[in-house]
Write a structure and sequence with these properties.
The protein is α/β, with parallel strands linked by helices and 219 residues long. The protein contains eight helices and eight strands, in the order H-H-H-E-H-E-E-H-E-H-E-H-H-E-E-E. The protein starts with 6 loop residues before the first helix and ends with a strand.
Length: 219
């Protein structure tokens, strides 16, 4: 169960649940012509950097086999049949994993990896996937505006996140993900921006990707 739960850190991530679902719904409809509730049934889903496991739990409730990993054991839910959360790092997981997945989540994860870890992850993603699978990503763009909003304002001024949550040198542009995808046999499908309303504390899809953005990949 939950240990050392830092509500300030996880609150913004939980506020992103709805917009993540909305984005995946848009892409699944575009690519497969199915609605997300029909498509995401009896699938194997991997959530890398799953946090509390709350987002992943929604898809276990849709009768999927769900597996989440995180380096912190801040899980809100107990493991059960078809829903397994494990404390581990990505290198150890990939080294010991023998399963393949239909969908992989990489939400608010890449910006916490250094370049070596990022290259290792992308080098191994293809081998984690079943045929015609999806990878859904959200992360933070790399520019002076994103640095100011995500670190100076969100962490240091408004205290929306604990200080030192992010390190600007690990932020990455959509073009960097596109390069890593192409290099590792993955198809770049889409990028869509995300905007945040601090008054209503919600996220929305946007044509503007200067700060937060989504990316979809397929094999």
């Amino acid at each position: 169960m939950m240990q050392k739960y830092n509500y300030k850190y996880y609150e913004p991530l939980e506020q992103m649940i709805a917009v993540r679902h909305q984005y995946m719904s848009k892409i699944i409809k575009k690519v497969t012509h199915s609605n997300i509730y029909d498509y995401l049934r009896n699938k194997k889903i991997l959530d890398i950097g799953c946090g509390t496991g709350e987002f992943l739990k929604n898809y276990h409730d849709l009768k999927n086999q769900c597996f989440g990993i995180d380096i912190q054991q801040n899980f809100k839910f107990k493991n059960e049949i078809g829903y397994l959360l494990k404390k581990t790092d990505i290198q150890s997981f990939i080294k010991n994993n023998k399963k393949k997945f239909d969908v992989i989540f990489l939400f608010e994860f890449l910006e916490h990896l250094n370049l070596t870890e990022r290259k290792f992850l992308f080098k191994n993603l293809f081998n984690l996937l079943n045929k015609d699978s999806f990878i859904f990503i959200s992360t933070i763009n790399k520019n002076m505006i994103s640095k100011f909003l995500a670190i100076e304002l969100a962490e240091n001024y408004f205290k929306l996140l604990p200080e030192n949550t992010h390190d600007y040198k690990y932020f990455l542009k959509p073009s960097e993900i596109q390069y890593l995808a192409k290099k590792n046999k993955l198809q770049f499908i889409d990028t869509t921006g995300i905007t945040y309303n601090p008054i209503f504390k919600n996220f929305k899809l946007s044509n503007i990707s200067l700060v937060n953005y989504f990316v979809s990949l397929r094999n």
